[in-house]
Amino acid sequence: VNIDNTGGFALEYEVEVSANWVGFDWLTVPQSSGTVNPYSNAALTVNTASTADLDPGGYTGYLYFNTNGGSDPNQVVRTDTVEVYMNLLEDNSQITQDSVDVPAGNAEPITLLDSEGNPLGLVLDFLNSQGGTVNVTRIDATPPTSASTPFDDPSSGITDPYFARVYFEISATFSGSYAVDIGFDYSTIPGVQDASMLRIAKRSLNAGVSEEWNIISQAATNVDMDNNIVYAQNQSGFSQWALLSNTGENSFIDVSAPAIQAAVLTPSDPGALEEVTLTVIINDETGIANANLHYTQGGSETFSSLVLSVTSGSSYSATIPSSDVTRNGLIYYIQAEDDLGFVSISDTIGVEVNFSSGDLSTSSALSSAYSTGFPIDKWRMISIPAKLDDYQVGNVIGDELGSQTSSTWRIFEWNDVSLSYKENPVNFSSGKSFWLYQRVEDNLSLATPAGETGSMNGTSLTIKP
């Protein structure tokens, strides 16, 4: 706090602090009294304290100055009061900043970015200037305001102001006058249900709860719904800026779970024992607290979990190790939780996996009835639990059984048209059962040509009234 003594007598002062919340003093003045020589000034240091003991929110404190600056220089009385407002942010809240140089003339619109290159949610479109520098701070909290904070709307549209939980402190250095359209990217703000009702308000830089909000008129407000930006048009200065509407028009609160888009796999057509990287876009108005990939192989009910890590912006990825990618296929789903605890779970997706010739056999198939081989001199049912590159019976089992003869092996399939069994079919069909009898070798291992996992599309049930 700057103390100016514009008079010819030494200024004596004493400071009383009133900033207590349930027993915690959150403002302190290391030196509460002093003297300022005539026609000079001094700086009074004010510190915050005990913030770890306070709840998030706005706090108002006061510095009461008792000085001899009244009519009697020999008498110390209360002459000045300084209101101090503190906005204490919640956990995980952010203060983000950017500084940009603006070229002279009608510059291209400027999107402000944080230190990681992410948009701050503010766009500046200079219509004319001689060039300068703009400094922007975004505060993700309700701006300093209360039920008693005055406001003025020249359009009379705002009668019960309700502010979004974000505001900007903007300062600038320009060599001359300028005109600028100041745009809020409302896609970065949660709970905007009706963008047409959004308005922008301004007041002096670093203003507290007692300072009046000047609401930009409706004539100077432009809502660009194609780009999700609301503009205060043709402004000639910077200060504290906020977004608002009437109570009930927009909630400015995230009540939605994260939106999980369709994932992309690399490679898109994986092979057995080949690692698979999954990349997915997850969006949320508030922010993602955690995201996980849950996966298993076909035929298993036990899921493994991997953390989905941010790659850039809203893009997340995780890599399934090669040892977990088998001919049985992959099954996965994604779960994401936002900062407010809302959870989304994606659809469960199946992924076919390619396998090589000989990989699928009676001994290796999951839950095979013939894990020790196909028996001799017994009629047994057999089916192909996969999509094969070659379904010809002779090419699938002929290499183990040899040429088909009635004395070596026989195979039958059911015919739905004739309602009878047909001997020696030409082709197998995925998932269809066939009766097989062989006299070549007991416990004979039968293997298939190359192929991929059977359909992983799941089951669709249509419920009819």
UniProtKB/TrEMBL annotation:
UniProt protein name: Uncharacterized protein
